[in-house]
Amino acid sequence: MPQFALLLPQRADRYTSLTEDEFMPIMKDYIGWVEDAEAKGIFIGGHKLKEEGVTVRAPAGSVEVQDLLSTEVAEILGGLMIVEAPSMDAVIELAKSHPHLVHNDVIEIRPLDEDA
Amino acid sequence: MPEFDASAVAVVDRVARQERRALIAALTRRLGADRIDLIDDVAQEALLSALTLWPYQGVPEHPGAWLRRVAWNKALDILRRQARQTDLSDDVLESLALSDFRRQDAPFDDARLEVLALCTNQSLKPLDQILLALRLVGGLTNAESAEALLMQRDAVGQRLARATRRLARDDTLVVSLPSRAVLAQQTEQWCSVIYLMFSVGYLPRHGQTALRQDLCLEALDLARALTAETSVPAGTPHALAALLSFQCARLDARLAAGDRPTLLGDQDRMRWDPQRRQDGFRYLKQARAASREPSRIHLEAAIAGCYAAAPSYEQTDWPAIVRLHEVLGRVWPNPVTKVGHAVALVEAGRAPEALALLEPLRGDRQLAVYAPFAMALAHAYRAVGQEDDARAMLTEAEAMAVSESTRQHIDALLA
Fold it and tell me: Contacts of residue A31 in chain B, CB cutoff 8 Å?
């Protein structure tokens, strides 16, 4: 069965100023969705990314390392999930029920490139 | 529009609550009760880590082990930092890390009871005791406690922070666990805090049904655990286990209509849990055998036993309930229990006595907002044929009623 990555971008400061009581119900929605997907046997795995990091660039011969937090990025990748589905249409349907669309805006769906 | 599987979210809530309980009990046993503020902090942080990571990884197969590992590592980090500032040596840390979960001097077999004993420290105000018990023993978040006790969330947080700090840092207080000698005196106090925990779940208030049911069952489980401890004197714990067994036997029937409790007379008795009912009678027998003087909880358990033994509301042994209430009124004079007494009197065909009991209480401040009081009075008026007075009281009761089901019940009586 084909596998797809759900890339979950978020505003860089999305969770920084939330209190615990605001944060918890959001995370519970995500956990509920993942639990549901696991129960259906279509959840392969996922990774949360820390809200920090660096970019490494090599403009014209030199190498620049820049702290992600010091640059004014509007959006960062919050994490990714891998799911299994028969087709892109099926993943789109699946993504429509994803709480990321409620608590954030966009989900990018990318098929894993494997031997067909 | 996205739809979430609400049951999966409820599972997360329950896991979080149960794991917080288990985590705090395990850490308290390992690190000692005097580190309760550290324990509460790392338990909280571990749960927060879980809530951050599980959305992407799913709930691990053994969530308890996962949380214990994370909380333990956080606790060790903090202790190591403290060790550098104080005289806590690496050896001490090593021994903490390696020590068995059950210390030699632990007064209880069940670690949750050690935490309960901590919560009922006599230097704490009663409200702080119940707040601590709800959080550390019940596993509730501050928001859940606030909702259950009709308090502001911030106020709950502040009181808890003060209470844990007080327990952990004020060395003028005796914060170590009680010796076996003082267990007897404290047993009554533990029983009343467990009873309060139960009441928070049982009374018709706002709040999620699942949470309230969970709290009731945890209170029953704690009462049962208390009866199993060889170091705790028998008697009141057995009476409490009996009372809560009877009440929990009716939990499904009571909550059959969702978050609105169904009143005893309207409950489907086929839905009462036969095992818990049977447990209730067994504990009641043990409670009677162990105590010479019946306590308030003994009497309440015996009354609950009369209700549980009846094949229908009409066939309840009202004269027996009246007799038990007469004793209860002497042991624990409380206006609220007089309501149950009066209802039993009316049902036993002694309505004029019920009126004589209730009418002097009409000015009582506590009862002025207690719908069951006005309903009992109306019931008594109706039984003696004072229909106008009965209707007036029912109208008053309707204004006081907390729950929709009570209002519907009153509407039916007024029709």
Answer: 8-9, 12, 51, 54-55, 58-59
In this structure, are residues A31 and B59 in contact, taking their beta carbons and an 8 Å threshold?
Answer: yes
Mean pLDDT value across residues B260-281: 84
Higher pLDDT, B227 or A24: B227
Q: What are the C-alpha distances in Å from A86 to residues A3, A96, A115, B351?
A: 8, 16, 15, 72
Q: How confident is the model at residue B93 (pLDDT cuts 50, 70, 90)?
A: low
Angular region, B176: left φ>0, alpha ψ -120 to 50, beta rest? beta
Q: Is pLDDT of B19 > 50?
A: yes
> Can you tell me whether residue A60 is helix, strand or coil?
coil
As a whole number of angstroms, the distance between CA B262 and CA B259 comes to 9
Cβ–Cβ < 8 Å for B144, B61: no
- Residue A75 host element (H or E): strand A75-84
Q: What is the mean pLDDT of residues B12-34?
A: 78
Nearest CA in chain A to B153: A21
**C-alpha dist (Å) from residue B70 to B39, B42, B43:** 12, 9, 9
DSSP characters over B38-51: HHHHHHHHHHHHHH
Tell me, yes or no, if the pTM score tops 0.80.
Answer: no
A96: amino acid identity, one letter: K
For B14, the closest chain A residue by CA position comes to: A28
In chain B, which residues have their Cβ closer than 8 Å to the Cβ of A27? 51-52, 54-55
Task: Using the predicted structure, report yes or no on whether residue B75 has a pLDDT greater than 70.
Answer: yes
Q: Is A2 exposed, middle or buried (0-12, 13-18, 19+ CB in 10 A)?
A: middle
| Residue A112 in tokens | 């894993």
The C-alpha atoms of residue B392 and residue B406 are separated, in whole angstroms, by 16
Closest Cβ–Cβ partner in A27, A36, A39 for B51: A27
Question: Exposed, middle or buried: residue A57 (CB in 10 Å: 0-12, 13-18, 19+)?
Answer: exposed
B174 part of contact set with chain A, CB < 8 Å:
no
Chain A residues whose CB is inside 8 A of the B59 CB are: 31, 34-35
Q: What angle do CA A8, A14, A16 make, to 5 degrees?
A: 130
Handedness of CA B138, B143, B149, B152 (dihedral sign): positive
